[in-house]
Amino acid sequence: MAPAPTKTHCPYCSLQCGITLDASGGSSEKPILEPQRDFPTNRGGLCAKGWTAAELLGHPERLTGPLVRDERGSPLRPATWNEALERVVAAFQRAQADHGRDAVGCFGGGGLTNEKAYQFGKFARVALRTSAIDYNGRFCMSSAAAATNRSFGIDRGLPFPLSDIARADVILLVGSNPAETLPPAMQYFDEGRARGARHIVVDPRRTPTAARADLHLQPVPGTDLALANGMLNIIAREGLIDEKYVADRTAGFEAVRRAVRLYWPDRVERITGVPERDIVAAARLLAQADRAMILTARGAEQHSAGTDTAQAFINLALALGLPGRPYSGFATITGQGNGQGGREHGQKSDQLPGYRKLDDTEARAHVARVWGVNPADLPQPGRSAYEMLSAMGTSGGVRALWVVASNIVVSAPNALHVAERLGALDFLVVSDIFLSETAELADVVLPTTQWAEESGTMTNLEGRVILRRAALAAPREVRSDLDVMADLAKRLGVQGFSAEPQEVFEELTRASQGGKADYRGISYQRIEDNQGVFWPCPSPLYPDTPRLFTEDFPTPDRRAHFHPVEHRGTPELPDDEFPYYLTTGRVMRQYQSGTQTRRVPQLAEGEPEPVAELHPTLAQSVGVASGDKVRLRTRRGETVMTARTDSGIRPDTVFAPFHWGGAGNINRLTNPELDPYSRMPSFKVCAVSVSRADTAQPREGDSNG
Ligand code: SF4
């Protein structure tokens, strides 16, 4: 009898759709991929990326053995694992001997399993004893995380199951486009609308999500905070505040009430460009609903005021008494596959497992006990992602870097500068499944297992911990990241690192015990038995926690906290030289830096190149038509893309996707100005000039700055 297909999950986004893989045809046949009809998030749905994920398995460009470079400028050549790892160890030891412990850096990814993210953080703090570790999730969720932590005392993207969306009467979606980024999730929005729910979308573009909404507000990029304060102003003046909830369950409202007094709708219209009548209509719709949700995503958060913007919408939700009310609340929609779990277990520069803080004495003592080290030997918090990358190769900066599953040359802001700093390193080692643009620059490349070849847990956008199961064997010379971490630690003379996912997970649960993200009651078996387990789950004897805040908030006073926030404008306003706004985002058939999806023929055919979207009025004013080449230029760099006109975008704004490397990499243009709390770069807005490109694509390395 043929073995049953393996139940596992899509390798891409935070929805982590349940799929089955049937690899019974043997290594010569591509596994058959089907959606799991009964998995509670996707309920049988998949998007184009999920349906074609098996194309990544057995891909001709797959890295199948280690590569090394004999000297800078020479080509990468095949090597044994022993040679590759000895080079890594020698380079790390040399950098630390010459420049101190923090001269070796680690850069992780939001797609790593919980086990890998956890062990990578431990590797940095215990095997290398460096403070220099951060990850690409800093560029994704950090602003929402900072805001929810300070208001609710916890950061779990959705504090309720995804299916609750179908039961809400009114939903305000801010800077989120699930119709393209999470298509199977739209079944819940559609179900809600079918029973009469009203949806409001805030986005400078008329996305497919906005096109389905009852009300579409199109603010100037970077002005969402003023919009939220304006809505709260209306709600306060019209007596629509839930005063009992505010009195019983929150703290700090009076300062917010005072702060929003100045956000009169006509003033907010001048700041945001959203007509006053629409602001009023949106505020009333939201306030008068029995069950209402406010959902934010990267459009609101990837700004230098991203934390305060998320906070402004939290203030609005709290004033309406939404968090903890049935089928209501504030939530933020996670992007990367393990964006949630990846930010809980210690690959962030200031963090220890269980969402503990590295500068907390008790947290250090607890985790040091689990790791069998002296708390005093754990490093203090290090630099955030962009700060670490921009200081590479400088005095006091990282001199040798290990990048695991992250393509920073494409995904970091001000990408030309980041590429230049990578060139200033003494040594770069990259672990990946394909030769990404970042791996191409490495001195050593380590090939690692991919999703269907490994087991491990992921935590989806709901905070549901799920199990990725191995369905087929990896190529012979490919090793798992856990195995490589354990081997490198041993070569560095440090014990206590396992290559076995289940063993690492068990240790992770002990390290997380008592922390905000407490996984102690979760096991592989419990996940299998229940189609996932929601954290916090402190004991095998207790139920898990699908819904948060029903009774109180995990803050010291058990109340949610308001914080007054002010609109302060974007760091770069349009001027004579750069007269428009540039905003960036995703398209349906690509994922993140495109390392995987650009290699899937069916996806690449649908979206083969980056396309700049601009309003016909703007296009006409610069002499560009759909299909023409358009030059986009900012203070940091320029690119040439094919133009597509679309009357659904604001006439002062250009949109470009961020999934491509090389000369089409829009992150060469983006602004690295950081949020003061989350250290999130200002990906979503900068000033740009737009012109018809009669000349060729700029050469590799061309830059203004
Ligand atoms: Fe995969 Fe996300 Fe698409 Fe689901 S929505 S199939 S998890 S990419």
Question: Explain this structure to me?
Answer:
It contains 23 helices and 30 strands. The protein is an alpha/beta fold. Strands 5-4-18-17-16-6-7 form a seven-stranded mixed beta sheet, covered by helices on one side. The protein has a six-stranded mixed beta barrel with strand order 23-27-24-26-25-30. The protein has a five-stranded parallel beta sheet with strand order 10-9-8-12-13, with helices on both faces. α3 (114-128) packs parallel to α19, α8 (224-237) runs antiparallel to α11 (265-272) and α15 packs antiparallel against α20. The model is unreliable at 698-705 (pLDDT under 50). Iron/sulfur cluster (SF4) is lined by residues 10, 12-13, 15-17, 42, 46-47, 49-50, 182-184. Residues 10, 12-13, 15-17, 42, 46-47, 49-50, 182-184 line the site of iron/sulfur cluster. It holds the Pfam family Molydop_binding. GO terms for molecular function: 4 iron, 4 sulfur cluster binding; metal ion binding; molybdopterin cofactor binding; NADH dehydrogenase activity. Keywords: 4Fe-4S, Iron, Iron-sulfur, Metal-binding.
Summarize the structure.
By secondary structure, the chain is of the alpha/beta class. It is built from 23 helices and 30 strands. 59% of the residues are buried.
